[in-house]
């Protein structure tokens, strides 16, 4: 599936979520195209106050100082320097953490979930899935 096809299918749903509150989102993925797609989706949903994007788990961990957090973290599993599982071991936050992976085996997803994810999704996210993630954060559609 090409980048433009992904975005075309993503934007077929043009409604936004009516926010109960604004959210901060951290997108962690080493693939620049996936980071771009997920950033566009997050902005398209229209509930985000702040979104930050990083290319690996080490940079993401460095973003967390005392008391810092994001409402939602979309995290890749396989990244250079520090993968998603190592990142989960290094951050313990009140954020909802959704794993985003190209791994399709249940055992691999189970391993990622056991590391501390709230849920796991296939790449790339579609707007419908992102809305479901945000609804889990008590956002009404």
UniProtKB/TrEMBL annotation:
Record's keyword annotation contains Phosphoprotein: yes
Residue span, Response regulatory domain: 24-138
Location of 4-aspartylphosphate modifications: 76
PROSITE patterns linked: RESPONSE_REGULATORY (PS50110)
Matches recorded under CDD domains: REC_hyHK_CKI1_RcsC-like
GO biological process, one term: phosphorelay signal transduction system
Protein origin, superkingdom: Eukaryota
Segments traversing the membrane: none
InterPro entries reported in the protein's UniProt record: CheY-like_superfamily, Sig_transdc_resp-reg_receiver, ST_Response_Regulator
Keywords per UniProt: Phosphoprotein
Name of the featured protein: Response regulatory domain-containing protein
């Amino acid at each position: 599936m090409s980048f433009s096809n992904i975005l075309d299918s993503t934007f077929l749903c043009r409604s936004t979520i009516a926010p109960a509150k604004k959210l901060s989102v951290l997108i962690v993925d080493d693939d620049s195209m996936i980071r771009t797609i997920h950033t566009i989706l997050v902005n398209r949903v229209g509930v985000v106050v702040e979104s930050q994007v990083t290319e690996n788990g080490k940079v993401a961990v460095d973003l967390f100082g005392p008391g810092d957090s994001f409402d939602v973290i979309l995290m890749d599993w396989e990244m250079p320097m520090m993968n998603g599982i190592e990142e989960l071991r290094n951050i313990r936050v009140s954020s909802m953490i959704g794993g985003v992976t190209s791994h399709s085996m249940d055992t691999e997803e189970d391993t990622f979930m056991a590391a501390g994810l709230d849920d796991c999704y296939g790449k790339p996210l579609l707007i419908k899935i992102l809305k479901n993630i945000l609804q889990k954060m008590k956002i009404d559609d």
